[in-house]
Amino acid sequence: MSTKNTTRRIIITSALPYANGEIHLGHVASTYLPADILTRYYRMRGYEAYHICASDDFGTPILIKAEQEGKDPREYVKYWHDRDEEDFKAFGISFDIFHSTSSDENVRFVQEFFLSLYNKGYIYESDVIQYYCEYDRKFLPDRYVIGKCPYCNADDQYSDVCENCGRVPNEILEPKCVICKREPVKKKSRHYFFKLSAFANVLKEWLDNNNNLQRDVKNYVLRWIEQGLQDWDITRDITWGVKIPLENENKVLYGWFDNHLCYIASTLLLAEKRGLIGKDNGKDGIAFWNSSIIYHFIGKDIVYHHYLFLPAMRLGDARFKLPDYIPTRGHLMLQGQKISKSRNWYISLREFLQGFPADYLRFYLAFITPYSQEDLNFDWDEFASRVNTELIDNIGNFINRALSFASKYGIREPSIDVYDELDRASIEEIKGITSEVGSLIECNEFDKGLRRIVAFASHFNQYFQSKEPWNKLKSDDPCDLASAYNCIYISVNAVHSLAILLAPYIPYSSELIWKQLNMHGSVHEQNWDNASVLAVNANHTIGNVKPLFKKISTKEIEEQKSKLGRASKQ
């Protein structure tokens, strides 16, 4: 189950959340939860696995919101950075660092990176014709302009990216100023451009040769390259952002120039703080990054940036390696409709966690989210059904039955000579499960991995029911008694397996299982392969056994559905 690269260090990044609003279920489904599952898994495999993220503090969306609320942008992003970090922590996302693009470390790194590209001739100046609002007396870059996408004709799209087709419009159709809703005029402004077009061939070669990337996404991006790449305007006429590090310049860098560089800057800062590289971050930092396996987890709406802009910039700088993997997932729909904050058709992570345990959501989203660009749907009724049947009636029921019997009757040395075919098959289930689930997780098939765990629990539910230890323990026949105690022994070891297997998926619940088993330490400190070891020995004392989960009621679900579409939240 090893990765193709022989290194034991893995850097996993999650796409940076904009520091302009609360985290909702769509965010965690495609990016943060999958990245967290993989990070937790590799830690249990004994790898150096680091989960890197930061708040995306710069750009026009931030500035627009701050202006609308009459706040200083630095104050504004600090609030949302802290709020988002709290929500991620409550959801069990195990970041090693949650930094910010406006940090001094990232600003310095971005400016140095800009100069590297500039001095190599990959950045040049050119006049642009830019939208200007005469009413508001300001240039209107990016999300200050809204209109129709020229590629797919989708309405209400921003000029920096179409959320419908994922492309960056050369010129938005039917433009309007987002502040005053008036039609802007065009004015000349001098900007800096990155020579994206110069990297078409090398990008194509990288895409062709990297077999770790999803084929459908690669084909998607290759078509863009074939259609011709346009040089990329990387500066903006606004005040909030990374300043251009050249004399007599008052422009700032486009947010998409700096935000993904924060992956590297944050990693180097983390490595420095932990004493893994030298304080100056020089060659040590480059070697640290380049000797690691790199994952960038994203949603399909930012494919253009992570498959074209990001690798081209790194190729131009020529110091930091390109990602080995870019796991890309589709959008989350809600009750069959597109998530929309303006229509209050969304569920914030914080609000969700006020009503239900984090592990319920982690379980459901992991169960339904494939390794694909296809959109998926959060359905309240299906959520309740999956949790109640698969997590509670299946997994929870088996764990409670097995541990209750072990607590009441004790665990005895197995009588191997009494093993029947079902006993032997169940032991083989335990011995083979880590390899099966681990292989699926390493292929980013987290949904399939969880479904295999669910099937494992289902097997042992049926095993326990078929063995009928409650009847055999009443028997005077030594063979019946031995069979019952064999069942208890094997079942408790299956619970031990489940605690470890579930740890990347539902970390809070797996820790509770571990405590009820009365095992030493934390389940998150265990080696993954120990899930295939019959490690609970005879005479082991079980801890305090009680139901792990509470069923979700129809009333609770109906209350949640009734909230959708009501007046917008404050």
CATH architecture heading of the largest domain: 3-Layer(aba) Sandwich
Count helical runs: 19
Largest sheet: 5 strands, parallel
What is the overall silhouette? elongated
Alpha-carbon distance between the termini? 48 Å
Rg from alpha-carbon coordinates:
27 Å
Q: Which structural class do the helices and strands define?
A: alpha/beta
Q: Spans with pLDDT under 50 lasting ≥5 residues?
A: 1-5
The total strand number stands at 17
What do these coordinates show?
The relative contact order is 0.12. The strands form 5 sheets. Strands 3-2-1-13-14 form a 5-stranded parallel beta sheet, with helices on both faces. A 4-stranded antiparallel beta sheet has the order 5-4-9-10. The longest helix has 30 residues, at 380-409. Strand 6 and strand 7 (157-158) form a beta hairpin. Helix 13 (380-409) packs across helix 17 (478-502). The chain is elongated. It has 3 domains: 9-119 and 198-231 and 252-329, HUPs (Rossmann fold), CATH 3.40.50; 123-194, Methionyl-trna Synthetase, domain 2 (Beta Complex), CATH 2.170.220.10; 370-532, Isoleucyl-tRNA Synthetase, Domain 1 (Orthogonal Bundle). It has helices spanning 25-44, 60-68, 73-90, 104-119, 200-209, 215-227, 255-258, 261-273, 283-290, 303-317, 349-355, 358-368, 380-409, 421-442, 446-467, 469-472, 478-502, 507-517, 554-563, and strands at 9-14, 48-55, 97-100, 123-133, 138-139, 145-148, 157-158, 173-177, 185-194, 232-233, 235-236, 252-253, 293-299, 328-329, 332-334, 337-338, 376-378. The chain is α/β, with parallel strands linked by helices and 570 residues long.
